[in-house]
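Per your request, structure below.
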């Protein structure tokens, strides 16, 4: 089997509150078709790709937000994506809000193969932002109200001829996300994100959003010898400006493709999964060089303890 995966990072421009799922799915289908025409095996869409980033508003009764969540996927409105994937023989990765039959709410991403079948599901582990309404903010980031953190952790799945992993947005800032997948031999990590430029708790970070985005994905790729595909929902959505700069990062840490706009935009790269071995079998030969016996605090404690 080929060790080349041609991947498309399908950045989305803003989705406004009034945009219905049908119009969003039409945009996703257009990007999927562009990906197929460009020879992609796999097209990656952003986090919460079916709706506006609704955690920017708070509602007293969470059931008022139920309409932002998917209770089944595929559903009548999302089925065309799965059908088109099969007809074009191109896989995709899609982020959406999931409401389970027993009432759990997750920020979820699925991986769909070229036959239109779901091969993997990942639920976001690191949930940023706040739990309660903070009326003094210019906009809310109430992800911790709308989503529970998954305890399922980071999986790696054999798909597209390689070992594929997933993470979602804030997960990319935590080295543990990459390393857990690195320890499972990951060769390509798929990551959708929604990153407001304005970081309310510390606006001095606003100008650094692009730098931090690249910093974490490039170091995660390099330190684990893996491809990383980071895909934004970008632009001014309901008055909130969000980072674009979707990128495909090689196991060397080099950016091989990056979006130029904050609109719907597809970038592609021909990814040689065997490039991962150059790092996994040399500098980052985990079996030879890691020292887990002195890393205990990383899993043994959550916050900082001072001696
Ligand atoms: N969606 C998401 O996880 N966004 C966060 C924003 C910063 S925390 C308010 C991120 O890490 O990009």
């Amino acid at each position: 089997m080929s060790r080349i995966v041609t991947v498309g990072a399908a950045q989305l421009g803003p989705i406004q509150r009034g945009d219905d799922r049908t119009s969003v799915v039409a945009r996703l289908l257009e990007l999927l078709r562009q990906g197929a025409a460009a020879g992609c095996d796999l097209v990656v869409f952003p986090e919460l790709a079916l709706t506006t980033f609704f955690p920017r508003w708070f509602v007293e009764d969470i059931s008022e937000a139920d309409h932002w969540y998917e209770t089944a996927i595929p559903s009548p409105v999302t089925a065309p994506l799965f059908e088109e994937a099969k007809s074009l023989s191109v896989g995709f990765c899609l982020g959406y809000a999931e409401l389970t039959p027993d009432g759990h709410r997750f920020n979820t991403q699925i991986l769909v193969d070229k036959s239109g079948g779901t091969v993997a599901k990942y639920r976001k582990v690191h949930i940023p932002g706040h739990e309660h309404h903070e009326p003094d903010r210019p906009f809310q980031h109430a992800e911790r109200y709308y989503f529970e953190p998954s305890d399922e952790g980071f999986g790696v799945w054999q798909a597209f001829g390689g070992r594929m992993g997933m993470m979602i947005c804030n997960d990319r800032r935590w080295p543990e996300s990459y390393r857990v997948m690195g320890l499972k031999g990951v060769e390509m990590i798929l990551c959708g994100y929604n990153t407001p430029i304005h970081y309310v708790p510390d606006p001095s970070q606003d100008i650094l959003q692009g730098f931090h985005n690249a910093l974490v994905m490039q170091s995660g790729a390099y330190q684990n010898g893996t491809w990383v595909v980071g895909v934004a929902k970008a632009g001014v959505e309901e008055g909130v400006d969000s980072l674009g700069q979707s990128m495909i990062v090689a196991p060397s840490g080099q950016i091989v493709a990056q979006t130029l706009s904050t609109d719907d935009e597809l970038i592609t790269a021909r990814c040689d999964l065997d490039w991962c071995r150059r790092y996994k079998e040399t500098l980052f030969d985990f079996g030879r060089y890691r020292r887990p016996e002195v890393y205990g605090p990383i899993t043994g404690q959550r916050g900082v303890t001072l001696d």
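The mean pLDDT is 98.

Regards,
D.
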